[in-house]
Amino acid sequence: MNNRWIVLLIILVALVGCGNQKQEDNSENQHEDNGVVEQSSVQFQNIDVTVENNIATMTGQAISSNGEFFYVVLIGEKEVSEETKVSIKDGIDSWSDFSIELELTEEMLEAEEDVPVFQLYGKRENGDRINPNYIPIDVHMY
């Protein structure tokens, strides 16, 4: 049990550190194809995850250059949910509230070694994932 708290604390510290960094290098957000530069970005803030009755609820705010972002749930490196698109109104020019509800599967609830995490990200027009953010789901705390 103590190992889970240590892993969760390390993940949270890393997320806070990553969330507070300014983008110093736009190369991750730019893709050049035949001389045309495509710019995409997505950012998140005020993220909160609760679990009740095997339902994980994530709330927060997002801003995206195209008004949408995507998420999957990972256990380790394995995707255990299908990719889901979230449209955010007013999310292009200003922060927009969002809420995600996810029914936890047996696989997610019984994960012992790796904590299930939401992976939130944007996409370029060619489908490449950009700006991934990892938010742990503490299924054993509730």
TrEMBL record:
<protein>
    <recommendedName>
        <fullName>Lipoprotein</fullName>
    </recommendedName>
</protein>
